[in-house]
Amino acid sequence: MIDERTDITVKKHLSTCIRYVKNWVTITQFLGNVELSDGKAHSIVACLVEYLNKQHLDTSRIVALATDGASVMMG
């Protein structure tokens, strides 16, 4: 789950959470906030993939994406 927002200092951030199943239990965990260079779709995707790789998460195993529905997140 991801959501982009702008803080009071006008810096853009991407909040990320992950949901996974471990021992037949569904777990939702906050991963972190990452500062974005801008709010464009390609910047968000690049930042997200880089962040997931730094966390040693295999992006080929992602099966869904949840956002707030904004066009930049879905386009």
TrEMBL record:
Top-level taxon of the source organism: Eukaryota
The name this protein goes by in its record: DUF4371 domain-containing protein
Species whose genome carries this gene: Dreissena polymorpha (Zebra mussel)
